[in-house]
Amino acid sequence: MSKINKIFVLLIILTLLFGCSDKSEAHTETTVTETVETTTEAETTPLDTLKGLDFDGASFRVKYNKLFEADVYRESFLLNAEEINGEILNDTVFERNTKAEELLNINLEFSPYGSVKDLNKSIMAGANEFEMIQFGSAWDNAVPLISEGALYNILDLPYMQLNKSYFYGDITERFIINDRLYFAFSQYNNAGSLPLYMLFNKNLMEDMAIDLPYDNIFDGKWTWDRFLDTIKDTAADLDGNGKLDENDRFGYLNLEALTNYFVWGFDIDVTERTNDGSYIPNLHNERLVSGIQKIVDFIAYNDDILHTSNFMEGRHYFMEGRVLFSTVGTGAMQPRDVESFDFGVAPLPKYEETQKNYYCPSGLNHFAIPVTIQDTELTGATLEALAYLSEQILKPAYLEIYHENKILRDQKSAEVALLLMDSVCIDITRYYDFANGKITPVYMLLEIKDPSAVASTLASFEESAMVKAEEFFAVFFD
């Protein structure tokens, strides 16, 4: 890495480690000098409360979804590293795990599980086979484990500071109902996960004399209407065959499942929280109906869009350099492979300019603890150590990877990446899936093709979803 790039990465790392984690309305810069001053004021770290603990070489056994082992997910969901091999991420994971083991005198052990049903069978049989379950949010529904009483109340574990950023404190709080928390989120498995974001082809925009969106992003003016204006009339029949197809130029690449997530950028929720902390569907509010209508109308009637439901096709189209914008998730497009043109990173657009913050949805991976654990101190201390160490050393390593692998091509993209990490939002219905996906927007929008049918379709879902919600959340009050 060149000297300039090393300074660039150092600035990113220092900014990330010690910058403010609160969402803000305006873009601000953090200098290295300011960062160093911040670090000298801190006299203690969360690890200080764990010093002196000694678990005499006890095993802390982690069960993880076997799909984490697939090559496409390894970079985002790497839990363990057997040895140092010179790769940034592998070596940082090895360092994190070794630090936790040495601090607590424990041995981390990892093994895959095949299904939630298998986990439930083991727990309900009373088998003491693991201390932690690391779910994959896109694949696993933990609801059956909650409903059958297989999970331990995380709030009863010692040492864990769940309000801290390394446990996504503001997000985890949303899952506490009647002083019960059956799964939570930590940097341990999410340190390198950027939420859903947009990529744009800088070269193509400059060639077409279209302003890059950075100024609007940092001024809080990157809105849905601004996005539509940016891509308006940008489609062109490049091959001259008289029709627009995959060989031509487009303003936006519609990967169908990911485009549906625009609704979360609008700061809209499909549920509302009741006085007792549980959730009920809220599908009739005007902003939700309007937001979904905007997206459905965009997908159905905009000629500047190239449509595909296949991630690999989408990856190919964007890398060909003939698309201005695309929405991507971590690993969905592998933009690091793009060599032929320069690109930038943007958050999902706001509903309107008066919206306070950007919101970018993330399928955070959640963890849970089986009721069969034997040592609550071991469990709580290990979770605290792994989460904190992940935030401190793994998150910067991911940013270094993003830079070296050309996902973050310039300083402004790096600043947007930091903004994204502070703009994470999640879909309650994806985790508390009490309606079998019926009201989860990413699935719900697949069934709505006509903007005029949005209100009636949502209304048709609400009654049954209300009944299912009441049935599910009753378990928190047994």
Q: What order do the helices and strands come in, and which of them pair?
A:
Blueprint: H1 3-18, H2 32-41, E1 58-65, H3 71-74, H4 88-104, E2 106-113, H5 116-124, E3 132-134, H6 143-147, H7 169-172, E4 184-185, H8 187-190, E5 197-201, H9 202-207, H10 214-218, H11 224-231, E6 250-255, H12 256-259, H13 262-265, E7 271-273, E8 279-281, H14 286-301, E9 305-308, H15 311-319, E10 323-328, E11 343-346, E12 360-361, E13 366-368, H16 376-404, H17 411-421, E14 424-425, H18 428-431, H19 441-444, H20 454-473
Parallel strand pairs: 1-2, 1-3, 6-9, 6-10, 12-14
Antiparallel strand pairs: 3-13, 4-13, 5-10, 5-11, 7-8
Keywords for this entry:
five-stranded mixed β-sheet, globular, 478 residues, D-Maltodextrin-Binding Protein, domain 2, 3 domains, alpha/beta, 14 strands, 20 helices, 40% helix
Oligomer: single chain
Work out the strand percent.
5-15%
- Which CATH top level class of the largest domain fits? Alpha Beta
CATH topology assignment of the largest domain: D-Maltodextrin-Binding Protein, domain 2
Largest sheet: 5 strands, mixed
In CATH terms, the superfamily of the largest domain is: Periplasmic binding protein-like II
Placed side by side, the strands forming the largest sheet appear as 2-1-3-13-4
Structure commentary:
The chain folds into three domains: 3-35, no CATH class; 46-193 and 363-407, D-Maltodextrin-Binding Protein, domain 2, CATH 3.40.190.10; 197-361 and 439-477, D-Maltodextrin-Binding Protein, domain 2. The relative contact order is 0.18. It is built from 20 helices and 14 strands. Residues 1-41 have low confidence and may be disordered. It has 478 residues and is an alpha/beta fold. α4 runs antiparallel to α16. 40% of the residues lie in helices and 12% in strands. It has helices spanning 3-18, 32-41, 71-74, 88-104, 116-124, 143-147, 169-172, 187-190, 202-207, 214-218, 224-231, 256-259, 262-265, 286-301, 311-319, 376-404, 411-421, 428-431, 441-444, 454-473; strands spanning 58-65, 106-113, 132-134, 184-185, 197-201, 250-255, 271-273, 279-281, 305-308, 323-328, 343-346, 360-361, 366-368, 424-425. The strands form four sheets. A five-stranded mixed β-sheet has the order 2-1-3-13-4.
